[in-house]
Amino acid sequence: MDLLDSILNSMQKPPTASEAQKSALKKQKEALERKQKDEKNRLKKFRQQVEEKIGEFIKDGNKPSLQFEPMEQTYRSIIRDVAETAGLQIFSFGQDGIDRYSVVYTKERGPSEDELSVRRSGGVWSEDKAAEMALQHIELKKQAALNIEEERNRKRKHGKEQLSGTFYKQKYAHLIGEDAALDAAHKTNMNKTYGEVPSENKKDSRSIEQTMADIRAKKLKKAENKEATENNHQID
Are 86 and 58 in contact (CB under 8 A)? Predict the structure, then answer.
């Protein structure tokens, strides 16, 4: 055996194809496991940070809310889990995958409708914004009160007109004609003594005593007429 054969025999043979594939798969698996382990540790660390922040928020008791930075859904779900476990309210705002973020509130002091409206529309909520919207509500209430008062004054001003024949004519002219409506309006004008019913339409204005006396007189007259009729028949 010469020197060359000796050297070739001492060298390791190249791995077969199956062994190379097994080695590559093993390395990939180990890399994936390391990545999963790193992600798990990262999420665990993030949860601990969230628990600390929420714990401080609860102990403080003066802050109206606790806002987190925009983040992926996986991290927001951890915030939600920690907040709900602590008995708090949590809302998310913004577009998913772009700028969606979470805000935590206590059960007793949730967000106002104004805050929800501003945040959902992409705005920034702050003490200055809250004061601005509070002033807007005050102005709106003042304007609403003015509108109500103006409406009352308008109704008082036109109250007599609404009770007059003009109103009656306008209301019923399309049903019974202009002339008939006007005539009906004149007949139903306000009567100071009997309200809206004309005095000439009253059927009987006699007292009870007078009415009873008239009835007795009618009965007496009827009896006299009957007696006179019977006497005339006897004479015949």
Answer: yes
